[in-house]
Design goal:
Elements lengths: L2 H24 L10 H23 L5 H9 L8 H22 L10 H6 L10 H27 L4 H10 L3 H16 L9 H13 L15 H20 L2
Length: 248
C-alpha cells in the first residue's frame, strides 16, 4: 500500500467510526440515541486511534490536511507531497461519509430533524458567532498538533521533525495516546464548535451531505463551512511552530 492510498483508507476509517458514532447518538430511532457527548467524544477518540493503527506505519497517518500543512511548515514533511496527501484525505472523507450514509440508510426519514442529519456529516457551532468559533477551532487544532508532536518526543525520544511524528503514530501504544489526546480535546474544547480540527473531516462529509439523496436534509450550512477549514490549518501551523520554537 502506498502512502496516498493509506491516507484514503485511514481517513475513510476515521470518518466511518467518527461520524458513525454521531449518527448513532443523534438519529431519533437509532439504538444509541441520546447517548450523549461522552459517547461521541469516546467514539471519535477510538476512531482516531484505529485509523492511526491501520495506516500509521505506511503514510504517517496524517489523515488531516492541517497535520500535513503543519508538518510541512516546520520542514518535517515535503511540500511536494502535500497536494497528494490532501487529495487522498478528502477522497477518504467522502468515502467514509458515504459509508455512514449507507450504514444508517433506514434512518434518513423525511421526518427526522434536518439538523440531526447534518450533524451526522459535519460540525456546526453551538453559538453562531464567527470570531469565537474560529478561535475555538484554531486553539483545538494547535493543541492537537503540539500534543501529537509531544507524544512522539516522549514515546521514543525522537530527535526532531518527521521522526517525532512517526514515533507518535508508529509505535504500538503511540496511536492509543493520540486517541486519548483527541478524547481530551473533545471533552475540554469541543463544546463550542464540535471540534472539527480537521478540514477533510468537515468539508468532505459536508459535500457528501450536499450530494447524497437524503430526504428532508435541509441545507449544508455553507456559510459556516470555511471556519473548520481555515482555522484548523492556521491553528495546526501555530501548534507546530510553537513546538519547534520551544524545542521540547
Amino acid at each position: 500500500m502506498n502512502s496516498y492510498l493509506a491516507e484514503v483508507v485511514g481517513t475513510a476509517l476515521l470518518i466511518l467510526f467518527g461520524n458513525g458514532v454521531v449518527a448513532n447518538v443523534v438519529l431519533a430511532k437509532s439504538k444509541g440515541n441520546s447517548g450523549g457527548w461522552i459517547v461521541i467524544t469516546a467514539g471519535w477518540a477510538f476512531a482516531v486511534a484505529i485509523a492511526v493503527y491501520a495506516v500509521g506505519r505506511t503514510s504517517g497517518a496524517h489523515l488531516n490536511p492541517a497535520v500535513t500543512v503543519a508538518l510541512a511548515s516546520i520542514g518535517s514533511f515535503s511540500w511536494s507531497l502535500v497536494p497528494g496527501y490532501i487529495a487522498a484525505q478528502f477522497a477518504g472523507a467522502l468515502i467514509g461519509a458515504t459509508l455512514v450514509y449507507l450504514t444508517y440508510l433506514a434512518h434518513w426519514s423525511p421526518t427526522e430533524d434536518a439538523g440531526a442529519k447534518l450533524a451526522c456529516f459535519c460540525t456546526a457551532p453551538a453559538i453562531r458567532r464567527t470570531g469565537p468559533a474560529f478561535i475555538t477551532e484554531f486553539i483545538g487544532t494547535a493543541a492537537l498538533i503540539f500534543g501529537v508532536l509531544s507524544i512522539g518526543r516522549v514515546v521514543a525520544g525522537a530527535a526532531t521533525g518527521q521522526e517525532t511524528w512517526v514515533a507518535a503514530v508508529g509505535t504500538w501504544f503511540g496511536p492509543a495516546l493520540v486517541g486519548m489526546l483527541v478524547f481530551a480535546i473533545g471533552l475540554s474544547l469541543g463544546g463550542p464548535t464540535g471540534y472539527a480540527i480537521n478540514p477533510a473531516r468537515d468539508l468532505g462529509p459536508r459535500i457528501a451531505h450536499a450530494i447524497l439523496p437524503i430526504p428532508g436534509k435541509g441545507k449544508s450550512d455553507w456559510s459556516y463551512a470555511w471556519i473548520p477549514v481555515i482555522a484548523p490549518i492556521l491553528g495546526g501551523i501555530a501548534g507546530a511552530q510553537l513546538f519547534k520554537a520551544i524545542g521540547l
